[in-house]
Amino acid sequence: MEHQSELQRRRTFGIVSHPDAGKTTLTEKLLLFGGAIQTAGAVKSNKIRKHATSDFMDIERQRGISVATSVMSFPYRDLQINILDTPGHKDFAEDTYRTLTAVDSAIVVIDVAKGVEEQTERLVEVCRMRKTPIIVFINKLDREGKDAFDLLDEIEIKLGLHCTPLSWPVGMGQSFRGVYSLYEGKFIHFRPHGKQEGEDVVAVEDLRDERFSQLIGQRAHESFLHDIETVTAVYPKFSAQEYLNGKLSPVFYGSAVNNFGVRELLDCFVEIAPGPLPRETEERWVRPEEDAMTGFVFKIHANMDPRHRDRIAFFRVCSGIFRRNTNYHHVRLDRQLRFANPTAFMAAKKEIVDEAYPGDVVGLFDTGNFKIGDGLTEGESLHFKGIPRFSPEIFRYVNNADPSKFKQFAKGLDQLMDEGVAQLFVREDNQRKIIGVVGALQFDVIQYRLEHEYGAACSYETVHLHKACWVSSQDPQQLQEFMLRRKKDLARDKDGRLVFLAESAWTMKLAQENFPKVQFHTSSELA
Ligand code: G4P
To answer: Is residue 6 part of a domain?
Structure first.
């Protein structure tokens, strides 16, 4: 029974945004509400600084610290809330994609002045692929920004999200008066230069109420009434079911730094957000209510101390109860493993846990047994689906620069790839190794870590490639012909899957035209 009641209390979600939209600030305010941190700034100081693109040592240093904030848990009302941190930095985008496989819902933060930005588009696409329920928070209303209706249009067009506002701003920037909560029928008054709790809440039963008009000013009131009329006419009524199906996203307006509109967001979140959802495996769907423990690794983090090669595998519990010092079946290795020190991550402190429930994430110390996507069970052979690998966009040949250290080089490369730092492709024709990454910074990270953690040296050489796509086909004959004709453009990924290395968009197009029965996938999960 404990299992059932605990799992019902879990809400596990991720906050995604383009860097600078206010994700860290919002996270911090949510943690303050939950009492998980006492002071503002606690999360902020741990964050990977966004301007550090050229200084990757700084990122390396901070990478260590950021483990502590990878998962932040706090109680709110009678729920246990887990926020999984998603790096906004573009060069860590893959990390974010994978983290999104471990959440049950997401909050998307958008800067009112900048609107929908590139990184947000890509991240929301991942959520959409997985039908993750999404709540949108439009932030920085204390500044001048885009018109509220234009923003909703942008969300629909650029993010492909069907949305409906649950709060509505009155004014903006200098003339920002507050937000009206359509969800709760109340007005939250914004006091400029207010303190932390700079909000006054007024229940508004009748929107035409004279007192309400006086509160926000007659002109603002008139335009507000006009807006609400349009909102009611144009946008669908909110339906929790549609939201849960990933088909309708409620939109909130506020200002995270002023702690404004955040409580309304959180209160609505706890009402509507889903608890632990079933997870798909190649064999069957796993429901969180099942007694047997199952779960998967979605992220691996290397130890920052080069003398200890231990890593932390982030493990999402999908069903049953995960228990300390209990034997579990590592499906890929077909081995029994037990964990003496599984850790929970609280903001700023780690602690050992005895039990974890569906929706929870535990950190497992790992000496090289795990790779991303690995599952643990109580014996059943289950392979979790939905942990995507994306087609990288930047490529280089990688060479072993010190022949006497070949073993170290091979092992280091192997483990870094398991961690998901980058992807390795081996050319079919000459067996040369190509590394593909999403952000160029990863090349420096690999070189540095090979040297400092494995005592190996690598060098890079340019290779001109447009894309690496995983290949599949229902037509063995055409696939055979394709493989024969394009042999020089083929490679294998780390799991031996066939990959087409397209030199240009043109070669890609040509291959698709000449081999219509061969499918080219930009994410390996589909292959
Ligand atoms: P991120 O994690 O999405 O990258 O964004 P972060 O929270 O770090 O916020 C980016 C900047 O936007 C910060 O300013 C932060 O203070 C500011 N910000 C967040 N919410 C609001 C808001 O509601 N209104 C306004 N006006 N600003 C907001 P910074 O100057 O980069 O950092 P700091 O020196 O203020 O800490």
So the answer is: no
